[in-house]
Amino acid sequence: MRPAFWQSVASYFSGDHHLVFDLFNEPHPDSNRDTTAAWQCVRDGGTCPGVSFPAAGMQQLVNVVRAAGATQPLMIAGPQFAGDVDQWLAYEPSDPLHQLVASVHIYEPNFAPCDTQACWTSQLDPAGHARAGGDRRAGVQGLHRQLGRAVAGQRRRPWHQLHRLGVERWQLLGRAVR
Question: Which of 94, 119, 99 minimizes the C-alpha distance to 43?
Fold first, then answer.
């Protein structure tokens, strides 16, 4: 994403607090690997391995959105097409408003790096717990059926509810939006 785009969007929608901004959808630097170089690229941007253009980093985009006067929550994804958040806390951008959401995209089983309950507990739960002021924000997009299933076959609340984490569900409808 280009910073000028986010400056324009943030300025235009700064007064609309029904919105959450997803600053960079599914980053995948360093050949889509979970490496230090990939995480540094996601946060800091610049010339990155596996990216053929100078990339804007999440920190730059957070700064641009906040300078435009927008106060909405900002979704921040990690590398691997936003498939994991194992190093999210170490590479979390700085936000003066403390309105960041650790975003992870989980689709079908065996398609995302973090698609098991064990991974959710080790990655999503810490990212959600660590939010400033106890604000538990970890967003899960493209949620697949497993996250909502009962734990161990028992009728219980879904995993994300038990761990008090938010879920954003979306769907492609296969028709033109007018």
Answer: 94
CA dist 144 and 86 (Å) reads: 19
For the segment 126-156, what is each residue's pLDDT rounded down to a tens digit? 665 554 333 434 444 443 333 443 334 434 4
Q: Which among 169, 108, 118 has a CA at the least distance from the CA of 141?
A: 169
* Confidence band for 160, pLDDT divided at 50, 70 and 90: low
> At residue 170, what are phi and psi to the nearest 5 degrees?
-145, 165
pLDDT of 86-102, one tens digit each? 898 899 999 999 888 88
List of domains in the chain: 3-162 (3.20.20.80)
Q: Specify the 3-state DSSP secondary structure of 102.
A: strand
Taking residue 107's Cβ as centre, other Cβ atoms within 10 Å add up to 14
Give the three-state DSSP class for 40: helix
Q: Check: CB of residue 141 under 8 Å from CB of residue 170.
A: yes
- By residue count, the chain amounts to 178
